[in-house]
Structure formats: C-alpha cells, structure tokens
Specification:
The complex is a heterodimer of chains A (105) and B (415). Chain A has 105 residues and is an alpha+beta fold. Chain A has 3 helices and 4 strands, in the order ββαβαβα. Chain B has helices spanning 21-33, 56-63, 78-87, 95-106, 110-137, 148-184, 200-208, 250-255, 257-264, 279-295, 314-323, 342-352, 367-379, 399-414; strands at residues 6-13, 37-45, 69-72, 91-94, 188-194, 225-231, 234-240, 268-274, 302-307, 331-333, 357-363, 381-387, 391-397. The longest helix of chain B is centred in the middle third of the chain and has 37 residues, at 148-184. The chains are: A alpha+beta (105), B alpha/beta (415).
Chain lengths: 105, 415
C-alpha cells in the first residue's frame, strides 16, 4: 500500500502553497488501525502542522482518540481547501501505487 | 400550528461524544416550522438500541403526553419504524422525514416539487427493497405467494425516479442557458449560500430593495430567487438559494442538484452565517456549509457574510471572527436588519468579482456592427469609439460578451 502526504499552507477555500509531497510504500499481511497509524506517522515525520485525514482512514474514530494514537494534532477535514488537499493526496497515492505496480511487472 | 399536530422530540446521544444542546434546539425549530406543537423534549445518552433506536422507557415516557407523532433526531431504520409502530400506538418520524415534510409543504414551483419527490423516492427505494427481502423470506410458491405485485412496486419507484431525473436534467439545462444569457447581457452572477435560517433572504432584500419572503424559521426559501443589483457601475444578479443543514444524506443534496448548481456556477459566492450563534454552533454550521459547498463543487471565490452583528457587542463579534478565521474566507460583519456594514460588503463584492479585461476590436461599417455596438453600450464599459476606415472600439468587459460579438460577426462574414 502507498500513503501520500501533502504538506500545504491553506486558506479556507484554496490551497495557497504546497511545501512537500511525500510517498511512503509498505507491504503488510493485514490491514488494521495500528498499521495505518504507523504508516501515517512515518509519512508525516518532521512535517510541521496538524494532520488532516479522511474519517474512513481512521475507521471514523473520535478526533481525541486519533490524536492520542498519533501523538500529534489531528483533525478531520472541515474546509474546502482541506478537502481539496486530501483529494490531491489521493490522486498522488493512486498514481504512486500504479507506478510501483508497473515497476514490479 | 394546530392542536392536532402534536409531537414529542426524542434524541439519542452517543456516550463517546460530548453533549450538544444545539441539536435538540434545531430539531425543535424544524418541528415548529413543520407546524407541530412540541409537548416535550427527551434525550438519552446510551448506545443504539437495535429495536427502537432509544430505550423503551423513554418512548413510554414520551407517550405519557399523548402526542400524535414521535419525532426522532437520529435516523430510523425500516425495522425500527416497524417495531415502534407495532408495539406503540403512535406514528414516528425521523429528522430527515421531518425536513422532507417541510420541503413538501413549501414546494411551490414544478422544479421544487420534482426535487422533493425525487428525495422522497430515493429514501423510500432501499426501504421498500428491504421490506421486500423480508417478505420474500417466508414466501411460498403458488396462490398468494409469487410476490409479483410487490416487486413491481420497487421497479415502479425506480422508473419514476428515472423520469424525474430526466425532467430535472432539462430544468438544469434551461438554468444553464439562462445563466449564459445573463452573462452575455453583462451581468455578474452572485449566489447567496449558507446554513438554513442564517438570514440569506433578508440580506437579498436589503441589498436589492426587494420584498422576498423572509421569516425567522428554517427553509423559508426552497427555489432560487434572483434579483438585480448594481455595485460601482457593475451589474450583478444576486440569487438566493435553499439553506444547508447538518447531517443530510448525500441523495438529498443530489436531488437538489439543479438548485444548487446556481451556487456552483456563480462568479462569486456569499457564504452567509449567523454571528449571533454561540461559537461552537457557528463553527459547526460553517463546517456543514463548507461540506455542502464541496459537494456542489464550488470553485468561485467566496466572501463570508457574518450576519446579525447588531445582536452582539463589538468585542464579542471581533473575538468570534478571530476564532472562525480558518473557516471564513474574506469575513465581513453585517446586519441585514439594520443595514450595518453593507457598504463594506459592497466594496468587497466589487473587489472580488472577476476583473473585466480590456479589448480592442475592429468592426466593418455595416448594420450588424452598429447593432453590436448598441449592445456593447449596454453590456460593457466602452472606453473609446473611433470612426476611421473601420470602426475601432476599446472596451472593458467580460470574455463572454466579446466572444458572443465575435461569433455574431463571424456568422455575418460566413453569410
């Protein structure tokens, strides 16, 4: 699986500047919350700011629980800009996954 | 409101989440808007009860008031509705059905009626399907056992939904054409969006001096209403739209797509919020508005109009604006009721509208050119007109106006 992280500066409805784009690939036998949170923590290492992820990524957990698992500021997307950034990260991760898959074969 | 329309409101709160007093208040507002006399409000903090959604004791407590209906904040599954109705002699509604009831009572245009019917059918279709699945479990072959009648009911619903969707697509295409014509006539399109009962219609009335129905209750406006507005010599059309509300199912937003496309296709969106709301509620409403705008695929610039500023002192207002800055693009504090801050809002609208471009155009001397020149006088700002070997125009206007003129003149040359 591939995790894409986008470090960006946002205003309420636009992405103002993208600072970093990072892709982390990992192979895992099973998929659970620990694997996902480890992957997200690793991908966000040394990046400043609040982590924003979709509700489904954290199995719809309450924000305070996700925050305590990650040990960092965390929230689900609220504004249009945050949703745009997540959509962008999805496109990047999918493209990255296809690249890796193409490379394997 | 009649004595016969009485209801008790029930809400189950998840123990993992903090208590939210505003949700029950919102449900009461919706019940009042639908014409119900609310006899009591009952809350319970517990995990979901699979049979009744809320505890049996709470339903019995509600029935002590002898209401006609029980209105639940939480969504009810078909099985829960069946269980409550078979064990207790009362009708039940959930919040979504209550909203649909309000919509159905206020829908006045053909488009609004179709949208409400589509939303109702989208809600009913999976419920009918699950009822059919339950019925078929005990189905026997032979006499009274084939279940053909019930199956056809589900297919009828799907067929009707397809027909309504086709009709709404036509309405949407007409709306698209209307917006294009308005742009060609030199109008900028501005949409008023925001949570229900934020004061959008009042703001429309104050800005344009019109007399649209504006009441202190949710969902007063269902169909878009457009009025003309002139700001610093730029002509604009301001459209009031249906308000947003939290926790709405996706298919309801899809059903109202033709109305919401007025927001998606606008040149500028005024996101109206009620600044007199408590901070927590204000943030929740802004988050719900952002989600709805995202679902509408809005890409236009936005101004956040923080309405009802006259209801709180300046310190409180500034403190609230600071706390919602991450959710409020270009905030401006106004009071549509007392006209406070409207000049600042107009200046900001003028600043944020798409800038007009300058063009230089050469036209031959013929009747079509003079016809176009006459039209450009109305739709664009003509900077200079020179009558030389050709007609040379310098103008400032929208790309659509110039494109239409070029198309007309090319057609003329082709002829």
């Amino acid at each position: 699986m591939v995790c894409a992280v986008l470090s960006a500066q946002v205003s309420p409805n636009f992405i103002e500047k993208i600072h970093t784009v990072r892709l982390v690939a990992r192979i895992s036998e099973a998929l659970d919350l620990n694997v996902i949170s480890d992957l997200i923590s690793e991908a966000c290492l040394c990046l400043p700011g609040t982590i924003v992820a979709e509700r489904g990524d954290f199995y719809n957990l309450e924000v305070w629980r996700a925050q305590s698992i990650l040990g960092r500021d965390f929230k689900y997307p609220e504004t249009i800009a945050e949703r745009t950034a997540i959509e962008l990260a999805h496109h990047i991760s999918l493209a990255g996954r296809r690249l890796i898959a193409a490379d394997e074969y | 409101m009649t004595e016969s329309k009485t209801a008790v409101l029930l809400m189950r709160e998840n123990p993992a989440n903090p208590a939210d007093p505003y949700r029950m208040k919102e449900l009461r507002g919706l019940a009042n808007a639908a014409g119900y006399l609310v006899l009591d409000e009952i809350k319970q903090r517990r995990e979901r009860d699979h049979r009744f959604q809320i505890g049996r004791g709470k339903i019995e407590e509600a029935l002590a008031h002898h209401p006609k209906k029980l209105i639940f904040y939480n969504p009810l599954s078909p099985t829960q509705v069946f269980n409550i109705r078979s064990e207790f002699p009362v009708q039940v509604l959930d919040r979504f059905n209550l909203i649909l009831e309000i919509f159905a009572s206020r829908a006045s245009t053909r488009e609004a009626k179709l949208q409400v019917e589509l939303a109702r059918l989208s809600y009913d279709a999976p419920q009918v399907r699950s009822e059919l699945a339950l019925k078929k479990r005990g189905e026997q072959p032979g006499f009274r056992g084939a279940g053909a009648y019930e199956q056809s009911m589900y297919h009828d619903i799907r067929g009707r939904m397809a027909k309504i969707r086709a009709e709404l697509r036509e309405v949407e295409a007409m709306g698209e054409g209307r917006r294009r014509r308005r742009r060609e006539m030199g109008f900028d399109l501005i949409a008023l969006a925001g949570y229900t009962n934020a004061g959008k219609s009042t703001l429309l009335n104050t800005l344009t001096g019109s007399g649209v129905v504006a009441l202190d209750q949710p969902f007063t406006t269902l169909s878009p209403t457009t009025r003309a507005l002139e700001i610093n010599s730029r002509r604009a059309l301001l459209t009031d739209t249906v308000g947003f509300i939290d926790d709405l199912p996706h298919f309801l937003i899809k059903a109202f797509h033709s109305t919401l496309s007025e927001i998606a296709q606008a040149d500028l969106v005024l996101l109206v919020a009620d600044l007199s709301d408590p901070l927590e509620l204000l943030r929740r409403k802004l988050v719900a508005s952002h989600k709805a705008l995202w679902d509408c695929q809005v890409t236009a610039p936005m101004i956040t109009v923080l309405n009802k500023v006259d209801q709180l002192d300046e310190f409180d207002a500034r403190m609230k604006v600071d706390r919602i800055r991450d959710l409020a693009p270009n905030p401006v504090m106004v009071s549509a009721h007392s006209s406070q801050g409207l000049e600042t809002l107009k200046e900001l609208i003028h600043e944020r509208l798409p800038p007009l471009k300058e063009y230089q155009i050469r036209l031959p001397y013929n009747s079509r050119s003079f016809g176009e020149l006459s039209r450009l006088y109305r739709t664009c700002e003509l900077l200079n007109v020179r009558y030389e070997e050709e007609l040379i125009l310098s103008l400032r206007g929208r790309a659509e106006d110039v494109a239409r003129m070029r198309k007309t003149m090319n057609d003329e040359l082709a002829e």
